[in-house]
Design brief:
heterohexamer, A alpha/beta, C mainly alpha, D mainly alpha, E mainly alpha, C: mainly alpha, about 80% helix, E: mainly alpha, elongated, binds protoporphyrin IX containing FE, binds adenosine-5'-triphosphate, binds magnesium ion
Chain lengths: ~200, ~200, ~240, ~60, ~220, ~220
Amino acid sequence: MRLSGRGIRCMRGGRDVFSGLDFETCAGEALAVVGTNGSGKTSLLRMIAGLLAPAAGSIALEGGDVELTLPEQAHYVAHRDALKPALSVIENLLFWQKFLGGDASDAKGCLATVGLDHAIHLPAAYLSAGQRRRLSIARLLTVRRPIWLLDEPTNALDRAGQSMFAALMIDHLARGGLIVAATHMPLGIITRELPIGSAS
Amino acid sequence: MRLSGRGIRCMRGGRDVFSGLDFETCAGEALAVVGTNGSGKTSLLRMIAGLLAPAAGSIALEGGDVELTLPEQAHYVAHRDALKPALSVIENLLFWQKFLGGDASDAKGCLATVGLDHAIHLPAAYLSAGQRRRLSIARLLTVRRPIWLLDEPTNALDRAGQSMFAALMIDHLARGGLIVAATHMPLGIITRELPIGSAS
Amino acid sequence: MTLLDLANPTRFLTLTSRLLPWLAGLTFVLLLIGLYQSAMAPDDYQQGATVKIMFIHVPNAWLSMFVWGVMSLAALGTLVWRHPLADVAAKAAAPIGACFTFLALATGSLWGRPMWGTYWEWDARLTSVLILFLMYLGLIALWRAVEDPSRAARAAAVLTLVGAINLPIIKFSVDWWNTLHQPASVLRLGGPTLDRAFLIPLLIMALAFSLLFLTLHLAAMRNEILRRRVRALQLKQASQLP
Amino acid sequence: MTALSLGPYAPFIVSSYLLVTVVVAILIAWITIDYRRQKQRLRELDAAGVVRRSGRSATEFK
Amino acid sequence: MTALAALVRRDVKIALRVGGGALIGVLFFLTVVVLMPFALGPDLALLTRLGPAILWLGALLASLLTLDRLFMADHEDGSLDLIVMGRVPLELACAAKALAHWLAAGLPLVIATPALGLLLNLDATSTSAIGLTLLVGTPALTFTGMIGAALAVTLHRGGLLLAVLVLPLSIPVLIFGVAASEAAIGGFSFGAPFTILCALSLISFVIGPFAAAASLRHGLD
Amino acid sequence: MTALAALVRRDVKIALRVGGGALIGVLFFLTVVVLMPFALGPDLALLTRLGPAILWLGALLASLLTLDRLFMADHEDGSLDLIVMGRVPLELACAAKALAHWLAAGLPLVIATPALGLLLNLDATSTSAIGLTLLVGTPALTFTGMIGAALAVTLHRGGLLLAVLVLPLSIPVLIFGVAASEAAIGGFSFGAPFTILCALSLISFVIGPFAAAASLRHGLD
Ligand code: HEM
Ligand SMILES: Nc1ncnc2c1ncn2[C@@H]1O[C@H](COP(=O)(O)OP(=O)(O)OP(=O)(O)O)[C@@H](O)[C@H]1O
Ligand SMILES: Nc1ncnc2c1ncn2[C@@H]1O[C@H](COP(=O)(O)OP(=O)(O)OP(=O)(O)O)[C@@H](O)[C@H]1O
Ligand SMILES: [Mg+2]
Ligand SMILES: [Mg+2]
């Protein structure tokens, strides 16, 4: 599996953010998109996720499931965590599992992995910032997509949470997964850096 | 100026989060509230800000302006950044300055300090995560309150942003300000740690 | 036992458990007397036998307003004194008040058909009572919609106090606008104008219904305190799980 | 006691009294059933070994 | 299939929890019907004549009041991104969301119609005729309204603008809904307007999801 | 003072930008008035008779449609926390927000009344009478409705529940607004209901902000 972009140009709100960006990454590898604030890291992730159209250039996936598009093989962990405050932790997770089609049995197992098993029936409105982030990670685990798109995933995680997540990423890479992460912090794993917008 | 809490007990959603917490901090000092996810750091900040009532115990400020309450002398930088997407950067900032009553002239200067001077007339909807955080910091500077309550303030800031913010905090402390910050990351300044919820 | 002791829910539970059987018995006896008296009351020269509806219509109508008054006091207790029992009293009273209001509306309609020739008319008295009923339902809905009881209590208290403005409107609507409904003949300045033959059974029935309310309210408050205890223990149980 | 003569509007009078009886009966029934249910729950929690903050058992009143 | 069912279930569950439960819908219509006499005057004959109009206006109101959050809530918390990225065709997902909206905001009205008919002094046949037209017509209100809801997300707009966009689309539904009900009450031919109403509903089932999905697909950023 | 003026200006600005500008309010009322003949049937005499009712229902609708976001939007983005912490008394801040809401959602209706009166075939005196009652009465709708909006924030609830809580409070305003307008049209005593309407508005100016501030102060967390 190989994800690559050629000559990508990003325009937002009528202004050029970056252009002529090339990148390439393979299964088992983590690509860390780094750059100053406003350099276009989030925009690049959204382009890979198919949520934003590049103004020029193209993004392609080779060696994935041919019946599925690139976004359908990816899962995106964004700042906004797609949780409904009125639903409980497990209801939130089970919904996304059913809707996105993950492995049905182990939602509770994933919650235990991220350390939320004691809060299963709590409404999501009651979660702290870090607990919400952990729930997003549990969703990432339940839906089991080969491509992980992570936008500052360790924000709000405590130190134990950060190393737990690093272990999960290493595990994912070892199974042939692929990670593209935008980050300002070291993620605790070996990554290849993709600097963008050198002169913002 | 001395901010202190005695025997604080925090209940949220009918569950005990922590109890019997004592703390004390003086002008010129930064208190870093540390603890695992869900240990109650944000809750403590909201109690100091007067947005959440402690279930027991009390929080008091000595040596501040006697005509003002504690929340009126504090500014709270939270996860949710109180920006209106429909207004431009400068409109957002000027509104808060007028409403909270800050020094009228230097809003633009503060924007320059945080590196947003090129985006003055951009709608806030167009800002990236780090740019929004910078705008929150600009507000913190414009309204000039002696007590800063910061909830993971360096989230989403790039490295240059983090050191810029550390310098701002040092400056604030040197002028006799007081900082209470909840954080998982080193803030880049000398802090006294207040660990809470040791066994979450 | 002072009022302050009553503030303790546990103390309250003991007291009600001792009091309730006596109250229930007294209510029952008074109801029987009242019913007998109203059965024996003569026919009205204008309204014929339908005047018998008065003996249940009027107590229910009075109680529908009285209960809101009780809830308003409880609301003050919640907002001003943050009294734990005030929340309980307000929540327990709402369904009972809604029932009384419904009965006032229903018996009024059943009386209106023979007297005015229609079950329903959009006049000031009738509609203001209907608004009262809707507000009772709104409050009940609010209590049911919010799991956290103390959060719901504060919101309901604000709404109850605002709704209390409706009470004088109901009471004086017959004086302010000319309506089909007749003006006050018992609770009025200058004393009652009702004939003694009707007044006495009416007052007994009113007393009996007030006692009924007291009994039901205390019992419902007891249930509510127990419900909160169950909730607290369940939360505790949930957090004890590994 | 002579039979009550309720005149031409007997159905209205009878049905209003009946209605009041029914509604009050429902109210009483609901409150008693609710009481039983709460006591039952408390007993279950007691059996599960959950105790109140004061250390007293769940069903205890005092 | 399970994906769509899960979406419907989630949206209904949220609507019931946030809106305060299934009874609130019924209570809302009760309030609207009680409100009308105050505005229109307490003339019972007039109220009876306007019965269908009042119920239809109530339906329009309920759908307008809740429609603007249909996609906006999912957009604000990021759910919409994940829904768009999912393997379920976006058109079907939109249809499922609209169905859930109707279950929470339209169906209660249909269920409450008999009780409301009593308040408006309508007889049994009229009530059942109105109930039938509402059952067939309210989905059309939701499925045309969802186009406006999708536009609101992509335009970052809300409030009255949405109502201005949606109301003209719902006028045909309103016309034929009221016409069919009045035909049934007045004893004219009920079939013709009712057939048109059914046709409108069917058309909206097709156009609504496609238009909404198209505007979401091109408008997100 | 400048703090409150800034709050009013900000809220109006946002309402106009998000709602699509000042004209949208007028356009909305136009749509409602155009819609009514479709619901009620095109009988012009009836429409004229119902003129005040239609305009008042439009006003109620506009305030309901936009009220639920009055405090909710500020709560969701954290602005409300800062407003509560500010040095401006919360009651005044609430009143300022309500004023801004009225400027954006109520005033356009008053301004559009002459044009709408033409559409409904009302003569000049009737139109000006209705305009006057709307000018006096619509603030009362906003200021009673804000109580519900504040409750929505503290309860984390919205949708139809809010409408159910707010509507009973606005019934008196509706009654006297329509009564005063009809009195002016029919040539009865306009003074009495109009005085009551004014009184209701004044009461709501006091009760609304205090109730809203109380519920916000006790309910945030
Ligand atoms: C649905 C219809 C009706 C409603 C909602 C209603 C409501 C009320 C209320 C709220 C009161 C208490 C007022 C106060 O304390 O001043 C009352 C009292 C009373 N109502 Fe009705 N009523 C209705 C129909 C009727 C009818 C049809 C009659 C008889 C023709 C009637 C006769 C009375 C009488 C005699 C009183 C006692 C007034 C007094 O002595 O103070 N009501 N009603
Ligand atoms: N609105 C709420 N209602 C009820 N419970 C809440 C609420 N917010 C937080 N909690 C609970 O209170 C506890 C403390 O939350 P808080 O947000 O203070 O944690 P925190 O220390 O800031 O955590 P984090 O590091 O994840 O930000 C958590 O267990 C959480 O589940
Ligand atoms: N919705 C939008 N509309 C228009 N412009 C936008 C939008 N979102 C972001 N931008 C602009 O695009 C640029 C890149 O934004 P992006 O969010 O990709 O930055 P980023 O690298 O993720 O920054 P950060 O480190 O702060 O998260 C920024 O300059 C921003 O102003
Ligand atoms: Mg970013
Ligand atoms: Mg926190």
